[in-house]
Amino acid sequence: MKHENRRIIIVLATLCICFVVLIGFMSYFQVFEAEAVKSNSYNKRLWINEEKILRGSIMDRNGTILAYSQENDGVMQRFYKYGNLYSHIIGYSHRAYGKSGLELSYNNYLLDLSESSTIEELKNIVAPSTIGNNLELTIDHGTQEKARTLLQGKKGAIVAMNPITGEIYAMVSLPDFNVNSLSEDWSVISENTNSSLLNRATQGLYPPGSAFKVITASAILDTPNIDTNYVCQGITKIDGYNFSDYNNIAHGELDLSQALIESCNTYFTEKSLEISVDNLRSTAELFMFNKNIPFDLPVNTSVFPKGNIGDTELAASGIGQGKVLATPLNMAMTASAISNNGEVMKPILVKSVVSNNGKVIKTNRREVLSTAVDSLDANTIKEMMVGVVQSGTGRNASIKNVKVAGKTGTAENASGKSHAWFIGFAPADDPRIVVSVILEEEGSTGGASAAPIARDLIIYGLNNINF
Amino acid sequence: MFNKSISTKTPRNLLLLFEILSLVLLLVNQWDNIDKTIYYIWIALILIIYISNFILNRITSGDNYIFLIVSMLMSIGIIMIYRIDSELGFKQLLWFIIGIIAFYFTYFMLKYIRGWKNWGKLYIVLSYILFLITFLLGTRKYGAINWITIGGHSFQPAEITKLLLIFILAFYYSNMDMFKDRKYSDYILMGLVYSFIGLLFLQRDLGTAVIFLGIYMVIQFIHEEKRMNILYNIGLFAVGGTLGYVLFDHVKVRVQTWINPWIYIDNKGYQITQSLFAIAEGGFFGTGIGLGNPEFIPLAYTDFIFSAICEEMGIFIGIGIIMLFMILVYRGFKIALNQNDKFFRILAIGVSTLFGIQSIIIIGGVIKVLPLTGITLPFVSYGGSSILSSFIALGILQISSEDMSYKEEEYCETRK
Q1: Backbone angles phi, psi at A356, to 5 degrees
Q2: A194, A211, A462, B302: which sits with the fewest CB atoms below 10 Å from its CB?
Q3: In this structure, are residues A335 and A423 in contact, taking their beta carbons and an 8 Å threshold?
Q4: Do residues A369 and A344 lie in contact, with contact meaning Cβ atoms separated by under 8 Å?
Q5: CA triplet B98, B297, B375: central angle to 5 degrees?
Q6: B363 and chain A: CB distance < 8 Å anywhere?
Q7: Residue of chain A nearest B296, judged by CA positions
Q8: CA distance A335 to A323
Q9: Range B395-408 average pLDDT
Q10: pLDDT for residue B410
């Protein structure tokens, strides 16, 4: 009898342990595995809304329709009018390959699944909508097409934006892919080595080279009691490492303005040491290096090395080499800040979300992210950048009757072929368009190859954009 | 007295609250094409549960909780089944009423008829007859031949055989004095149980086979005096299991889809992955009744009802169901500990083990802790024979919770 009771309790305990294990596993599953399981493309729930709701259209700033959906015999079909042109901005919504770009980040708006308030949610439950919301982009379709034509045949990215509002006019990344033929091209797209799926404009991290000198110049102006004069001998030795100028040409006696115009490497390496690493880093961080840039698409964070770096690396950082890395978008924002009295604007890609019956559901407003330099210093640097285009390395970007400000960059990298950079804006006194151009592994200087592209795009933009 | 009225009224009222809330949700959800049956369901469900709990308190001198626990399980089940298919929900409500009748019928049969512990041969013969019927008349459903159809109603004889097995084991171990003198009687019992398991294997009803084995092992572990027999049993199980895996393809498939269902997502692993999608989608609090998509889960109203509940009511209700079964099993074993009549004690252990193992196997199966076997979740899944046998089992547990000594005395007196 006593034995029996003991054994009954053993069996009971065993069963209870089994129950507790079930509870434990369910909790574990929900916390750690559920997200991954849910997003499996075999989960029909992912597509149930797609079958019931007409996905909203996407249009540019002038109302040109870029993507739309249509119902054919109860099946919703998505159409992209410009196969390659918006592959990194709008992306795709595809049953087998999932979603990307704005199709992903604005999915709930496009399907009108917004969960803004309890009342909205209740309304959705009682009377679910059947037509999604439309997106109005800040993109100018003409400028976007022009930018892609200019970049055609090269690897790299172009960002064109409004320096005062942060609105993006064009954003191109090459190589790209055709969103209308994903199923045929997928194996090539996903396996080839030139990463056409990557949006280089926001996610490509490149050494900014001399284009970074704009930031170093800001730091110099911010450092009290610094001697801004220097005699350039074409080469300088820092901690046993030689920094030389382009073709080892000595610039002679220079002030800050001349140094920026001639893009003198020895000047900026020597001055970086005087600025000190902490000040240079904090200035770079005001220009959004090491910071998350809030945006409608995924953005990688630009890098300025952290910690106590040695003199050699500090000197390299001052001319945008070493471990400094920047996204083309971030460099466009850097030029914006100089043109905009030092204020870094939040980049905006989606102007507003508008419901089917014309009600504005969401508007992305102008927002200052940080004040990188005071307006006096910003205007000083602006004048220097005008000088770069008028008489310096950026002469290829000059336009008749329009004052263009800019900075070139030629960034050395592991591939052996240098990246060509140009960042700039125009008109200098009333800036309306900022352009950032990078040509990946171009093998020539920014002044020679990137500046003409920027010039052509600025001319097109000033003449055609509906500001 | 005061304490007692508090202790059973409170859960009863909470249960009422739960039913009202979830039925309101159902009503809101089906506002567009409202079906009159929902009012009947509403009133009938609440009345049935309220009245039967009320009556039971008057009749029984035993446990007051097990029926409350089962009422809660039934409520969740009926609401979910009604949400998936209103016609089935209505049918399930009818089965619930039949189940309650079966419960009281079993209760009074066991209470007033004597001699249950002497009819071992009858139980054995009945079991074999049920197996025979299954093989002769059985139809294949979901890969297993375990259904017979009589007059348009499908029935699963193994549901009744399960209970007969418990009676056979109770008969054997409570009459130990009689069997001690007979040589090999323990081996005959083992052979008998394994013949059942073998027959179930041939019917491809793996889940039920495991339940049979589990019940046998538990009762043997508690009551067998020759402890060596337990080792033989485990050995036999190991050999049988390995042989089953090697010989039968359907066993292999179960194990493969348990280890990694994702690579068979198109075919063999379809059921289990759909079940996991549903549970993942539900999160902790569920999508809300009527707002999920349990129609994507195959057999959502029977074997996979637990996944459907997790999707719409969240894993908190899922955990609640597991805990309800835990309390039910705990009450069952407590009843066994307090029961002095050996026959009824073994019945109580058998029935509690049945509830425990069956719920663990199917819940573990749909959440991929155990290989999936197609059995029902007692009191929650849709199905006439499952509800019927579960309520008969509950009736057995209810009677076992009462003091049986009077019966023993009367019985002895009549014998003299």
Answers
A1: -60, -35
A2: A194
A3: yes
A4: yes
A5: 45
A6: yes
A7: A44
A8: 21
A9: 83
A10: 53
User: Which of A391, A388, A392, A375 is closest to A425 using CA atoms?
Assistant: A388
Nearest C-alpha neighbor of A373 from the set A339, A345, A341:
A341
pLDDT at site A20? 96
Residue B1 reports pLDDT greater than 80: no
pLDDT recorded at residue A102: 92
Q: Which residues of A touch B313 (CB under 8 A)?
A: none
Residues in CB range of A315: below 8 A, 6 or more apart: A238, A241, A243, A269, A270, A272, A273
Beta strand extents in A308-399 (DSSP E only) = 343-345, 350-354, 360-363, 368-371
Q: Check B291 against A125: CB less than 8 A apart.
A: yes
Q: How far apart are CA B82 and CA B96, in angstroms?
A: 13
CA dihedral B401, B405, B410, B415 (to 10 degrees): 110
Q: What is the DSSP letter of A30?
A: I
User: What is the pLDDT, as a whole number, of residue A119?
Assistant: 62
B274 CA to chain A: closest CA distance, Å?
7
C-alpha to C-alpha distance for A236 and A254, rounded to whole angstroms = 15
pLDDT tens figures, A418-448? 999 999 998 999 999 999 999 999 888 899 9
pLDDT class of A120 with cuts at 50, 70, 90? low
Question: Cis omega (within 30 of 0) on the bond before A298?
Answer: no
| Domain extent listing, chain B | 2-415
Q: How far is CA A247 from CA A91, A264, A446, in A?
A: 43, 11, 15
Q: What is the mean pLDDT of residues A184-199?
A: 82
Percent of chain B predicted with pLDDT > 70: 92
Starting at the edge strand found earlier in the chain, the sheet holding A350-354 runs A75-80, A65-72, A58-59, A134-137, A350-354, A360-363
Longest dimension (CA), chain A: 108
For chain A, the residue count is 467
Contact B135, B121 (CB under 8 A): no
Q: Is the pLDDT of residue A72 over 70?
A: yes
Task: Return the residue matching tokens 């889940």.
Answer: B207
Q: Which residue has the higher pLDDT, A47 or A400?
A: A400
Quick one: average pLDDT of A115-143?
75
Distance from CA of B27 to the nearest CA of A (A): 12
Answer whether B293 sits within 8 Å of A34, measured CB to CB: no
Put simply, the answer to whether A19 touches B277 (Cβ < 8 Å) is no
Residues of chain A with Cβ-Cβ distance to B262 below 8 Å are 40
Instruction: Indicate the residue type of A193.
Output: T
B27 touches chain A (CB under 8 A): no
b/e burial code for range A255-267 (CB count within 10 A of at least 16 → b): ebbbbbbbbbbbb
Class of domain A202-349+368-464: alpha beta
What chain A residue is nearest to B335 in terms of C-alpha separation?
Answer: A8
| Between B137 and A365, residue with greater pLDDT | A365
Average pLDDT score over residue span A287-311: 92
Q: Write down the pLDDT at residue A294.
A: 93
Rounded Cα distance between B170 and B345, Å, is: 8
pLDDT tens column, B109-153? 998 888 888 888 999 999 999 998 888 887 766 666 677 777 667
